[in-house]
Amino acid sequence: MVVRTARRRVERAHGAGRRTAHGSLITGMARAGLVALGVLYVLIGAIALEVAFGNTRQQADKSGAVRLVAATPVGSVILWLLAAGFGGMAVWRLTEAVSGAAGPDGDKASERLACLGRAVLYGAIAYGILKYALGLGAPTSTDKQSQDLTATALHHAGGQVVVALAAFVIAGAGAALMYHEWRARFLRKMNLDPASAGIRTFVTRLGQIGGFARGAVFATIGIFLAVAAIDANPGQAKGIDSALRVFAHTPLGPRLLVLVAVGLVMFGVFSCCEARWRRV
After folding, report:
1. Is the pTM of this model over 0.85?
2. Three-state secondary structure string covering 48-98
């Protein structure tokens, strides 16, 4: 108990130092980015539910979510807000790569490198949404992106090895995410002390189930990328949409896709909860 209290004090002191370094602007960017991420996953999960019931051919990924937003009466406004949110997320992750992230492992080199990778990813998402908002190009599906990148790698010497390594990293990251989220490791980066016991339980379950579903999608993408490497066939690579549709073709049928889709919606809601209670 004494050790746990001392550790919390150290984490709070470290967090206070980081907040001073980041400033209120970066904190606001981080929270706006978490909301944008949450909205995106809620939409992806909702599209996946429609796919499970055979009610849509829309891509169940960020490209489909962005198109869905654009079709609403206030679509252009929401697109700009999403682009700003993901841009803020990229800046926040970049500052974490430089000055360290919240939590007990925030200063580790591996965590800083992961933050840098996330900064690049969220920056690319922000750029894609911004282009679409400006009318400079339709969003590309994650299936096409995955296949194009795989094809480019396979055209070079040693490409199969590179693709196989990427598959191992993605599948491993997905499996690790499933394990860590189910163990509620995310609570180390959150401050739920002011919340009631019921809210803490609710947020914890959202993170566990939502994170597990998200990890399962990434693990599936990694497995199919490994198949693409073995067969030297970029057509075997899958993005989020195709990975989700695979769940509907298991012995459990569309019911498994429904479960995963609900999990993604829960992760989206959890991300919005992070915007409120995460240490940034």
Report:
1. yes
2. HHHHHCCCCCCCCCHHHHHHHHHCCCCHHHHHHHHHHHHHHHHHHHHHHHH
Closest CA to 215 of 250, 251, 253, 266: 266
Domain locations in the chain as residue ranges: 2-277
Whose CA is closest to 142, among 44, 49, 32, 39?
44
Dihedral angle computed from the Cα positions of residues 187, 268, 244 and 156, in that order, rounded to the nearest 10 degrees = -80
| Nearest-5° Cα angle at 253, 244 to 58 | 40
- CA 243 and chain centroid, separation: 15
Amino acid at 107: D
Q: For 142-167, what is each residue's pLDDT tens digit?
A: 999 999 999 999 998 889 999 999 99
Q: Which helix (H) or strand (E) holds 165?
A: helix 159-182
Tokens 């591996």 map to which residue? 110
What is the greatest pairwise CA distance in the chain? 58
Dump pLDDT digits (tens) for 111-136. 889 899 999 999 999 999 999 999 99
